Amino acid sequence: MLKSITKMKRLTLLIVLVIGMSICCYFAFADNPLITTDYYADPSCRVFNGTMYVYGSHDIDDPDWYKMRDYHVWSSTNGVKWTDHGVALDKNDVPWVDQSQDTMWAPDCVYKNGTYYFYFPVVANGGGRRIGVATASNPEGPFNPQPNYMANVNGIDPCIYFADNGDAYMYWSMTSTVWVARLNSNMLSLATSPTAVSIQGVPSFNLIEGPWVHEYNNTIYLSVPISLTGGPEVMDYATGTSPTGPFTYRGRIFDPNVNWTIHGSIVNFNDHWYAFYHDDALSGSDHGRCWRAEEFQYNANGTIPKLSKTLRGIGTANAYDQIQVDRYNTASSGIQSQSVGGGEPRGWYIGNISNGSWIQYNNVDFTNTSPGTISARVASQSGGGSIEVRLNSTTGTLLGTISVPATGGSQTWRTVTTDMGNTTTGTQNLYLVFRTGGFNVNWIQFEGTAAPTGVPTPGPTGNQAPIFTGGPYSLNGTSDYVDLPDGLTNDLNDFSIACRVNLNSRDTWTRIFDFGGDTDIFMMLTPESGDTGYPYFCITLTGNSGEQGLNGNSALPTGSWQHFTVTRSGSTGILYINGQEVDRNNNMTLHPADMGNTLNNYIGRSQWSNDPYLNGEVDDFFVYNRALSPSEVAALADPAEITPDPTPTPTTPPEDCNVFFDPAHSTQILDSTFRIDVVVDSGNQELAAYGFNITYDPAILHVAEVEKGVDGFLAAANTETPGEIIASGFDSSGTGPGSDLQVLIITFNGIAEGISSLGLYVDQLVDGGPTVIGTACGTDGSIEVKDTILRGDINGDGVIDIIDALLIAKCYVDIEPERCNLDSSDTNCDGKIDIIDALLVAQYYVELIQSFC
Q: Catalytic residue positions?
């Protein structure tokens, strides 16, 4: 019995975002603000399972008033890289909410006895500010609301605190008062009547709201936003020893915001204390707020120091992610952090750079892998400058110098890369020292010389790591899809896109991915073309008429994992399925960067509204800014992941078992042009094959061109006999180049009506010299051939089918291998007949393995 694919997770970023019945996924690399993809306020940070989760309001930037219709949950393990888990609760999901108002204010979330309890305030039907409770089995939700709001609670901004004895207390605010009550053990209702919290010594104020309670050194801390005179709020705090108070005023945490509100939270994460808050830095509007956070240490007497807002924020940056250097710790005089333009993702860049100016960016983690290159995102009207990347000071160890060319404008962005002269490990402080000036910098990123497990090693040029990783995504075929970041393809020239796909159903013109700007400018991969019924990749800038494409060679099965890789190098595009090349286009002159700033980057849906959505699973989705080599593609496809259980994994066929043929397809549209490849793969030793005879029906298929193969080892010519093409592999002496793949390309056009089956006949296979080891033939190009015997064809009828699977299984079970033909039954060429051979034949029959002989 065969197992389905056993998944080996690599550097897959899990970013599943559920919005109603749809799936969208986002991640953000940021410092302060923490999130720049949208507007969020009232950050309530909680730590669950070693991860920070932030719950807060979701602002709709409206000039008239604060409007909030749903809640998102974001998480991070380092404070710098944040993942959006999508809509945790929408006002439409709550039956008692006044749907005419957008009032989903500051929430909180806690965990007890296997359940996550989400507390949220909103205006209820019939009026009144009420607090509801919703529950989930995981911290990111989605949360299921209770059928009604909590009784005896009138107010907003709930916060939950667990006392040392396990009792839970809820705090909230209303009419410029903080209220508290103990919760029942079900966490859904009050066990005591609400009482007003006494804060002794607090300054005279106009408004107090947003209570947050935490504990440090056996002292309870109550922090509250206060409007002293009706203007912008400050963040003050008080301390006490009882959950119900009284509390004694201690001082100020944050001075007034530029905007009106400053709701926040305080949390300990990995022995670091963080104060979260919001302001209007992202939008400049009171009603379009953004989350921020600062790290602090308690004073020796237990007081909280007054905190300043910084660009750097919190956390340790990963050197191998994009480092937003415009969020620096300190900078030389004149340096400015300005809002980025030119189609870049929302954020900032470093501007007003002059010769000798610099910035300092602290806490960059290089782990145990020494980086080999440094990339920078730059823009320059005239160019001519450079960036020195140094450690710990402006004269510290020089990691590398990045030359900044002219990009065509101050907001025309380009990624440039340099090799590192020195390497480093551990956590370091970076200094960027600028020479000449007159350019702008958005971010920098390091690339490692040693790849993490599961990631291909570097090719001859380009960067090692993928620029995007994603999955798993489970898509329902009706409304689910994944929306990747805007501009994902902006800098892709040579590229690779790889992923695994497991289809529940095969629907014509669904999309594994579709990137682009509209229905005329796109790059897409479909598992089933409406023209052929087979997988198809293409890129175009002029709609269907301009497509440069790659075709699969068979229908994609459902119910099993298949691996796809598309690569482009120079003008050559290649489509791989399950690690094997199935099509090559030497005239793929378009590259993704030609599409401009792509705003529609989808997994599982098409830019054409009438095309169906993908029904199945997509995982291990990688985008690289270089073309992977065949060996790297094979490593990603990882056929070892398809394993029998509990028997051993079948071994790779040795020696000369690697002659195969990629057939054309009779379902091509009339008058179309297509090509077929005949491939000789010598495996691990020298192998020559010559006297290929390819037959077809000349009344249906018309040969337009026969090209010499790669490296010139295959030559071919049209013969005087209609319907035949003869070719030779390597030379007549049988000496070959070793492990190189040799490809013969035959182009057909002028397809007439009818069905033409292609046949492949190989007159001689020569192994390592002039010795002829046999002849081979196959009427189906998907069959690999060796010697005069089709291995796996146990009964010798010319095909491999269920009868052969049963026969070889019987040979093994009866322990009578002498009854079987060794030449045909020994499918893995190891000189014996055993369970491995039976598995290989069975696997071939169910199309789980295609590469054996």
A: 42, 209
